[in-house]
Amino acid sequence: METATNVIVQPVDKDKIKGIWKIALYMALITAVEYVFAFTMDAGTLRSTIFVGLTIWKAFFIVSEFMHLGHEVKGLIYSIILPMMFIIWLIVALVNMEGAAIKDARGIVDVEGPAVEQVNED
Amino acid sequence: MATTATMSKAKLWGGGVEPLKASYGKLMMWFFLLSDAFTFSGLLITYAFLRWSAPAYNGAPEAFTFSTEYWPIPEKVYEAFPGFHGVELPLVFVGLMTFILILSSVTMVLAVEAGHRMDKKGVVKWMLWTIIGGFAFLSCQAWEWSHFIHGTDTATIGDVLINGIWVNDYEIFGANLSFNQYGPPAFAALFFFITGFHGFHVFSGVVLNIIIFFNAANGLYDKRGHYEMVEKVGLYWHFVDLVWVFVFTFFYLI
Hints:
The complex is a heterodimer of chains A (122) and B (254). Chain A is mostly helical. Chain A has 2 domains: 14-71; 73-108. Helix content of chain A is 67%, strand content 2%. Chain B is mainly alpha-helical and 254 residues long. Chain B has a two-stranded antiparallel ribbon. Chain B starts with a helix and ends with a helix.
C-alpha cells in the first residue's frame, strides 16, 4: 500500500488567481456584447459574422487560457489547431455555399409575411 | 561521434514518456477532445445546412408568428423563464445557463490551480463548486426541454404525419421528434439532438467530476504525489463549456 507522505501545500499566487477571474470577466463582457447586438441589430449576414467572430474570440480564451493550450509546446498547439482550421473551412464551405445552393436548386423561396393559421387554447 | 548524438537528442523527443512535453494521459485527452470536436462540428454543419436551405421568414420581426412553413426566429422561441409565465423574456434563461457554465469552468480552473499547489482542501472545495455548477446547468436544461416539449398556449396549425397518415390542419402544441409548433420538423429534431448530445456530455462531465472529487477528498492524489487527474477532467469540462459557446451562438443568437 502507498503510504501518506508529508505533502507541502504551496502558497497561493494572488496574481494568478486574479488573472483567472479577469479572463472570466472578459468572457462575460463578450457575452454581454453579443446580447447588445442580438437586441439592437437586425438579423443578417453582418450580424451573424459578428456573432461567429465573438464566439471564436471566446473559444480562444477557453482553449488558450482555461485549457492551457497557449502555454504548451508548439507541436501540441499545431496538432490541435490545424485540424480544427480545416474543419472550420469545411463548415464555411458547406453552410454558406452548399446550403444556399440546395435551397436555390430546390426552388425554395422565403416567406415575406407571417402565417395566420394559429388558434388560442381555451 | 557519441557526443554529437547526445547533443541533438536534447532537442528531439527521444522516446521518453512525455511526447510534446505533455503526459500520456493529457495528450490522449487532447486527441479525444479533437475527435469529439469533429463530432460536434458534424452536428453543427447538419444544423446550419438544414437551416440555410429552409425557407426563411423575411417579414417584420414584430409580426412574426410560428408556422411549420418557415424557420423560426430564435428570440421568439426561447423567451420563457421559470416563474414568469406569459412574460416575454427573450434569451434571458439561456443567458443564465451560459453564465452558469462559464462560472463552473472558472471554478474548475481554480481546482486545477489548487492541484498544482498540492492544496487538497482547495481542490475539494472548487471541485464541489464545479459539480454544483454542472447540476445547476443540467437542471436548467431539463426545465428548458420540458417547456420546449409542452409548448406555449397558442397552437400552430399545420399538416403533420401521425402514424403514417397525413393529418391536415392539425393543432400543434409543443414539440416532438416528428413535428413541432415552432417551425419545420427539422427545427425541433435538431434542437433535441444537439442540445441533448451536449447535455449528455455535461452529464458525463459531472459524473467524472464527482469521481475525481471523491478521489481527491480521500487523499488519493496526495499519495500519488500529483493532481494530474484533476487537470485531465478539467480539460474535458472546459471542452463542454467550449461546445456550449458554439451551440449558444448557432442555436440561440443566429
